[in-house]
Every structure is written in C-alpha cells, then in structure tokens.
Amino acid sequence: MCKCKIGKFFLKLFGILFAANAVLFVVFFFDLDGKLLFNVVEPFLKKHYDNMKRKDVLNMPYDTDKFPKYKYDEK
Amino acid sequence: MKDLKHLIYFENLLQEANNELVQQGKKEGLRAIGYTCYFMPEVLLDLPGCFSVRLRAPRCTSPDIATYYMSGRVCHYGRSLMERALEGGFNFLDAQMATETCTVTCRFQEHIQPKHLDSVEDMRIIDNDDFFCEFTDVPFKNSENSYRHFETQLRAHVLEPLHEHYGIDISDEALVKTIEEHNELCRLINEIGDYRKLDNPNITGYEFHVIQLVSLVCPKHLILPYIRETAEELKTREPEPKFPFRCKVVLAGSENDDPDFTKLIEGCGAMVVCDRYCYGAVESRQPIVLEEGKSVLRCIAEHYLKTSNCPRFMPQDEMRARKQRIANLAKEYKADGVIVASNKFCEYWSYERTIDTFILKRDYGLPVCSIEKEYINSASGQLRTRFQAFVESIEIKHIQEGK
Amino acid sequence: MAKKKMTKALRDFWYGKPHSAEEGGRRLGEILEDKTQLYKHREWRGVKDTFYYMYMIWGYNYVHMVTDILKYSNNPIDFFKGTWRYRWMGQTYLPVIHWFDRGLQGMRGEALRASAWHYRAMVSASIQQICNFFNGDTRLHGGKQNDAYWHTFLAKETTCGTLFYPWMDAGYQYVPIEMIPYFVTCHVNSHTVLNYIDAAQSIGLPGDPCPMCQAEAGIYVLDDVPDCAPFVITCNEACDGSVGTAILQDWFIDKPLFALPLPMQFDDPLVKQYCMREIEECWKFIEEQTGVPFDFDCMVKYLERQNKLQRDEWEKWDVAAKTDYYPVNGVAQALFRIFSTQYGIQGDFWEENSEKVKKIMYKCVEKKINPFPQTRHRVIAWSCAPLYYSNWCTWAYNCWGLNTIINMDSLMFDMEFRTDSYEHMLEDMATYHMWAPMRRMAVGGMHHIFELWDYMERFNCDMVAMYDQLQCKGMQGVHGLFEDEFRKRNVKAFWMPHALPDCRTVSRAEIRGYINDYMTTVMHEEPLDPSLLDFDDSMTW
Fold it and tell me: What is the value of ipTM here, to two decimals?
C-alpha cells in the first residue's frame, strides 16, 4: 500500500515534471518568449518611455564657480 | 575709409603658403618650420635660424586625392592641407612640428611624417631630403603636472630636434630674444586690434583678419616692418563718418584661416570685432611674460596652456570658464552678439558650439548665431541667409530695447 | 532510397543537420521570421545540443537573470523600479536571451558551450552594474542619498576599472557610466540607442561626430542616467568626440568632476611620468571626495586576480593562434575580453567563466576537436566593430566559413601588472590606462594601427575584416593608406562600413552585402549556407 503510494507520488511528480518540461520546450522551441517580448512587452514599454515626463536638462544651471579647481600638484 | 597701404600686399601673401616672404626667408638661409595648432608654440619655431609657418591651404576647394587617403568624412581643413601637401605646396618646409591636438590635423601630419616603418610605406609627400616631422604631446589640462610635462615635451620634441637637425641656437638667450620679437608683434597686433573696440572702428574685421593671418604665415622679421607701418597708419586713419555696419559680433569657433569668411559676415552687416577662434588673435597675440624663478621654456609652456581656450581642455573649471570668457570678450569689444562657427566634422567644436549656443544666450543674454561651415565657404548663399537673419534679429532686439 | 532518407532523418534528429549546403545543410535562414528575425522555431541542433541549449543556456540564463538580481541588488524592488524608469533598462534587459541566440546561432558542441559561458559572464557583470546603478540611485529612493550612493564611483566608460581597486574592500563599487546604457544596450537591442543619438542631435549637435559620443551625451539629454554617486571621473577616451561629450556631460551631471585624460603620444617614454602623476591626482581626488585613503594592499589583491585573468587570456590566444581547437567564437571572444578588461575585477564572474571555458578548451586540445570545422578562412577583425552587429562573425562563419580568430580591441590592455612595489604598480597602471579601448586605431602614431600585419601573422590569419567606422575621424584618416597596403601586400581584406551604434547609417543587411560581394566577386567562393545570403532583419533587436 505504502510502496504503491510512493510509486504513485513519483509517477505524479514525473508526470508534472514531464509536462512542465514539455511546456517549457514548446516555449523554448517556438521562441514564444521572444515573440511575447517583441510583440507585447517591448511595444508597451516603449510607449511608456516615450510618454514619460522627463526633466528638461537644458534648464540645468551652469555655474562657472560652483566647483573648485581639482588640482593636487601645485607648488 | 582710405585703403590700408599694405592690404593688397597682405592679401597676396595669403594666396599661397609658400609666399613671397617665405621664399625670401628661405633665400636668407632660414629653415621653414610648419605647424598647425596654437599649442605648438610659434615662438620656439621663430628662433634665430628658422621661422614658423602656420599651415593653410588657401583656395583648396576640391581635395580629391586627400579624400582618397582620408575619406570625405573628415574635416575639410585637414584634407585641404593634405591635398596641398600632395600637390607639392609644402615642399618648402624643412620640418613640421606636429601636435596631436585634433584628430584630422594629426592624421595629416602623420601622413607627411617620414616614419621609416616596415608596416606602412612612407609616401614622401614633402619632397625635401632634410624634412622631418616631430610630434609633441600636449596635455589636456593646465595644472602643474601639465606645465612640467609640456616643458619636457617642448624641449625633447621641438628644441632639441631643431638643434640636432639644423643647429638652431636653443639657448635661453636666444629664446629671450625671440620672445622679445614675438612680444613686439603681439603688441602691434593688439594695438591694431584694439581699434575694433571703438564705437566706430577705423579698421574692419576683415582687414584685421588679414593682418593677423600674415603675422602667422610669414617670417616675423620680414613681416614686422609692414605691420609696424600699418599700426602707424591706423593711428591717423579716419573711420567712416557713420559706423557702416548694423551690429558688432564676436566670432568664436574652430579653425578659420579664411578672411573671406569674415568678409561674408561683414557683408551681411555684422562687423567682426573679435576673433576668438583657432588662428585668431585673442590667444595667439598675448605677450609672453617671463617670470622670475622659472626657466624661459617653462614660462613658454605655461603661457600656451594658460592662454588657450581650446575645447580640448578638460578640467571642469576650465570647461565652464570658457563660456564666461566669450561673454567677457563680447563685453570688452562691445559686441551685440556672438557667432559660433564650427568646421564640419570638427568634433571638439561641434559640442562646444552646442553648449555655447544655449549658455551664452541663457546665462549671459547674448544673441547667438550657431553655424556649421566648411573650410572654404565664401560662396555660401545659405550662410549669407543665416547671417542676414541674425543681424536682423539683433536689430529687432535693439528696437525692442529702445536703443 | 526510403531507407537512406530515414537514416538521414534519424542522423539529423540525433546530431542536427550538417552545416554546408553540399551535405544537405541546415539552412538557418529559413527558421527565422522575415524582418523581426524571431524564430519560427528555434534551431534543432541535435538532441544533445538542443537540450543543452534549452537547459544550460536558455533556462539557465533566465534563472540567473533573477538570481543575479537577488545576489547584487540591495533591494530587488529597485530593479523593477529601475526597469520602469530607464529606457535602456527595460528595452535591453528583457531580450538578453535573444542576444545569446544571435551570437550562438549555428554553434554546436564545444563552440556552443564555451561561447555561451563567455556570454554568461557578461550578463552577470551587466546585472551587477545595473544593481550598482540602482542601489544608490536617488531617483528610485525618493531623492535620498543612501549609503550605496556614497559608496559608488561613477566614471566615463573607458576609464579603466582597475583605477578604483584600492577602494574595493572599503565597500566601494565602480560604475562605468555608459557601459550599460550605451555599450551593452547596442549589442542586445539596437533600437534603444537611437533614442539617445536623436536626443543629442535634438539640442543642436550635428550628426557627424562619432555616434558613440553622441549617444553618450544623449543619455543625459534624455535624463536617463541614474543619479547614484556624489562625484564623477571623466576621460577623453583618446578621441576628440569624447572630449566634447565630457563638456556636455559636465553640464548635465553638475557634480564634482575630475578629468583624467589619456595622453595622446603614449609611446613616448616621457609621457608615462606625466600620466603617472595624473593618475595619482585622480586618486587624491577620490580620497578627498570619499575621505577614504588609498589602500595599496587592496589594489594588489585585485590586480593579482586580474593578472591571473590576463594569463588565462594569453593561454586562450595561444591556442587560438596556433591550433584549430579554440572553442570560442568571434563575438563571444571579443565582447568578453573588452568587457572584462574595461570593467575590471568586481566579482568572480570573469574568473569563474574563464575557468569553464579553459576546461572546454583543454578538452578540445586533448581530443583534437575542431569546434569550427567549416572554417575556410581565419579572419582578423581590425579597427572597431559595429556594436549593433557584433554577431556578424557568427553569421560570417555560418554563411561563408569565415572564422574570426581575434580582433583589434581584444589586443588592448595586453599586459600584466607588477605588484611588488607602488612605483612599479603605478608605472604599469599608467601604461594600462593609456592602452584604452580604441586606442590603437585612434591616436598615438600610425605604427599602432599598422601593427595589423604582425598580428595577422601571430594569429595565423589569412584574411582581414576591416571595420570602417564611418564617423571615426581617426580611422577615416588612414583609409587610403590601408587600401594601398592591402594592395601592395596582396592581403585578402574586406571593408565593413558601419556607424558603431547607429544601424540606420549602414544596416546589417548592407554589411552582409559587402561581405557577400567580396566572397563571390573577389574570392569566387560559394556560400556554405545559401539561406543566409540575403534576408531582411531590419526590425530585429
């Protein structure tokens, strides 16, 4: 009875692993990951980045005396 | 205004690198030493026994063979020099004192350098058995370490080779004497240039450009008498009764040895009152000051690193100070705006121009005309349109300000 | 006949189809979708290699892309926040496995395994850098300057990582600013960088400066650089455009910035002293900014690890030069070398993966396995490569049997450090710093770029792939001399025009066209795999 349960468990485990691997293989072999990324994820992200509000860096200050002269070898 | 006595003579001197005075200098037994960049101290090449010639390729509009060697995607100035060299136009040179201060002029100088390598055949472009080309490493900073390095470089790669090859006297006495002559030239050029600060100057930007250029490309002792005379002449030269231009501008930017470019700007109504570009007088005509406790060569090295406004200088304070300096020049010369011009394919100035265009306007309130140009552009209708529009915008600004 | 067919089908199933058309080849071009180059189905490389690819490359790297985040990130949530915030991150990180696919296309056996380990190391190094970016990024932490922020060095990407070793044990990390947002991005997803080039031009920068420098400026124009360190070190990369970029970057960074230029005439012995002092000044700047003193012992510790990596590389080069048993393909060799030398030792990924590759290489040598059996020509690639098509050499091998053995940039940093004294170390540091990437082609005298002939001989190459970066003024400036020398020496060489990161200037298809033309009209050769001759990959990553 016990042996049978263990056997069934392993059989089930094997079945699950096999099925998982089969699914993975299908994803891998037919490049489903690539197709998802190319056709769905990237366009979505691109849209997001294109519409993102960004700082106008041209408004950054440009002070001539903000930083010291980094000179370490002066007499 | 009355024509300057020597202007046509000066203009003729600028038609060829191997001009009348260069030929005369050679006949006197002097060695002609070429260079391209401000960082090669002109004063060292003017030591007794030799004279400096800052290389130009006037009227070179179609550098075909140079384009084969350097492609059409590099600075037209570098290619034009190469073309002129290939045509034999620089055969009068006895040496080229090279600097690797911008890529394309460096490549040009590497082409003319007898390299004596197995890996690449020398082209013997300069057909002169005595000719040699020596490179000096120029630092990117103006720090103590850089001064020390530059002094060492100038001794090893300029003075000693001149002495070894041509027996040039490189003693301190000789250097001091050359500096004196150099400083006299600087004094005269500045005296002439200062007239541009007047409300109604008695010299045009074009005339000054021509005078400055001849001072760079002719033996000093031969050109000095003419410049002295011109300075005297200007003391009494009457300006036009009414300022003949519509505004005044500072011209800043990359290599420019084409007086016709200045003429083009002035033809559009903007007088070029200040020349803050490679080959301009703002840097190159500052007198060299000898300081006590420092060797003469050290003073020269420091002078050239301290006075340069080249965008290849990288310390943070220096990068930022350059914009302030242009603004100061605009104030000093009472300019209404700034034209920032970079040669096509000049990478340093492409960036510097971009930032100048924003900062000079935003932080200093100066109208800026930002243009990209070729080495020779006198026929450019596009540029003319740009300058005309710029002049008009300055006039409109003046009207709005009630001036 | 049917039996023959069945036997072949079984053989093809078990071993994968043979390479060449003559043997009833695999026709790799037919398994890819037009334009996007997504796989209709992935390549059947035989049972062993297909499942190796699935488990040890595809699956393994997907898993490690997660575990590496857990390993290097202070807070994995930051990684997702960063992905959402930065374009170079989102658009680049996800297609990483397809970067493997492109580089490893058609590889079998040892070549597949060894090349993939080089890729693995690069992915790990990239994730570490990304985490270093995000750990201290004030934008991801509500504007707060956390501990990681104060322990990060930011430097222009061609400032060599070795300079920062003395502070590694004090908990500091070095991040080369543009290495991920620009350099890696171009390889993985060539579209991303175009945004940055366009951004740089949108503020008035002309289109003719080097597009690499444009892109490096553009990431700032688009405000797409993490704010993760209190100060910055910049350098000139030994080219005019990079100096220009530094001017723009300084404006947009607006932080204490130290310039550490590479001297131009770097062969001149007088220059070394100057460079040594500059490096020391840089170290003083770091000490001043961090308050942490220079640690020579720490420096030595990391330099010795780096020396070991260098010796490994020499061993690999030796096998590549003298035998047919070197198992790493052209792109994996080049990128691993450039990336590892530039970034330096900041983790164990370089060493670990290098060891794995060495093992495979020893096996090839011992068992006389030729991992690239269809090699017709041994190619040396000279000048700098198109970043958007660094895998051209994989294509060239598959299509024409052109096996790229070595390239110019791999040969930079070709030295060990002496660690017996501070003076020796400093002297070597100066040399190392001066031999930066692209140095040979950019500046310092023509003799460096014309060392090509020596290296051709040393690596036993019979053909040159001459990269022609159209906007590199240094290389354009010697174009004609190379033409002359190729003719004079009767060297088989093809030019490959490109625009470094910008695939719009010269497309990948055009690059292939140049090579195809050369191979058919000059070499009069037939392609190994005709399906790869002409295809449209204009939309691919």
Answer: 0.94
